[in-house]
Amino acid sequence: MTDVFCVTGAGGVGKTTLSAGVAVRLARTGQRTLVITVDPARRLGQALGLTDIAHDPRATTEPNLWASMLDARGSWEDIARRYAPADSAERLLGNAFFQAVARRFPASQSYAAADTMTREVQDGRWDAVVVDTPPSAGGVEFFTAPRDLLALINGPLLRALTGAGIPGSRTAFRFTVAPFLRIADGILGSAVLEDLTEFLFDLRTTVDGLTARSQAIERVYRSTRNLIVTTADPMPLGEALNFANLLPGLTSPPDSILFNRAVPPQWEHETIPPGDSPEVVNFRLWATEAARQRWLRQDLRDRLRTPVHTVAWASPGPAGTDDLARLIPNGLLESGPDGGHPGDV
Fold first, then answer.
1. Could you tell me which residue, 274 or 182, shows the higher pLDDT?
2. Does residue 77 contact residue 91 with C-beta atoms inside 8 Å?
3. For a tag site, which of 25, 179, 301, 318 has the least CB within 10 Å?
């Protein structure tokens, strides 16, 4: 059985780097590990020993570790080919409305990530899969995207336009909606009616396949270990709290909180020399910040009843897999979804 780790949180909190670090640590236990990342910085690719990261998994310089980058558009093309009849799939791939959905549907990247995760889990090649989830809505959309997509495709609006059956009644469509679209044709001077008609009816042919796929994704969700990344900044903290409270209704409860870019905790207890020189004042400010962050971590753990692990701020960024592995606190991957490990507040 494949272990799945979903690393979530607001944008800009270091999820991608920590996802790679988690994957390195897992690979070093001898597990064949895949990390699926959203958009890694060039420095991270170099740290993994890759000149570039593609949609298909590529071996890194670390034994037992492969990496792939999410390709939302490519994933939607795969969806069309897998779940629509061959003729409908080809029309969808060439349809401007389908291309717009693949690029701009709010949850398109999140659905593509969930679909890619499930495909790799079902493939059976991996002992562990680590997912760097898209940051939209603090990571919530990654877990809601499958049901959101089904609501779009099989919802009342599309059913009203195309009819209750699948793929729907083109005759009814011509009499009800087509007259309004012909007005749009005249105003825009383009084949809006033809393109939209083909898109709506071809999209409806994917309902059965996407329904089954969404159910498979939901099954994977129920067994994931969810790691929420935050920093001491107010917005990421707020999103982490909100997300942690929403998770039990969407997937398994949060496994752990990773408090990233923390002031080294030992700075709180350093002996501060007397005086008011700029250096001493600066020293005193950092000690105060270390104490504030300790209180924030304790508050997170008490409010969420979830282990909180500290990842100290480090500069420069990781230059290799050893640096990535050192970012991950000892004990993080040993704690289970029951929150048995107390964390290191």
1. 274
2. no
3. 179
Reply yes or no on whether the pLDDT at 41 is more than 90.
no
Tokens of 102: 């693949």
Q: Which residue has the higher pLDDT, 188 or 111?
A: 111
Closest C-alpha to 247, from 326, 92, 117, 143: 143
Using CA atoms, how far apart are residues 32 and 190, in angstroms rounded to an integer?
A: 51
How confident is the model over 193-212, as a mean pLDDT? 75
Q: Could you give the CA distance from residue 323 to residue 24 in angstroms, rounded to a whole number?
A: 10
DSSP string of 142-205? HHHHHHHHHHHHSSHHHHHHH-SSSS--HHHHHHHTHHHHHHHHHHHTS-HHHHHHHHHHHHHT
- By DSSP bridging, strand 65-69 and strand 58-59 are antiparallel
Contact predicate 263/296, CB 8 Å: no
Token pair of 285, please?
């400010």
Using the structure block, give the residue that is written with the tokens 């409908």.
88
Distance separating alpha carbons of residues 160 and 227, to the nearest angstrom? 41
Cα 298 vs. chain centroid, distance in angstroms? 26
Average pLDDT for 278-296: 91
Rounded Cα gap, residues 124 and 289, in angstroms = 46
Q: What is the DSSP string of 327-338?
A: HSPTTTTTS-TT
C-alpha 240/C-alpha 83 separation (Å) is 35
Q: Is 245 helix (H, G, I), strand (E, B) or coil?
A: helix
In single-letter form, the type of residue at position 177 comes to V
pLDDT digits (tens, 9 = 90+) for 148-191: 877 776 665 555 555 555 455 555 555 555 555 555 455 444 55
The partner residues of 262 in beta bridges, in order of sequence, read 312
Q: Which residues contact residue 144 at a Cβ distance below 8 angstroms, ignoring those fewer than 6 apart?
A: 107, 110, 250
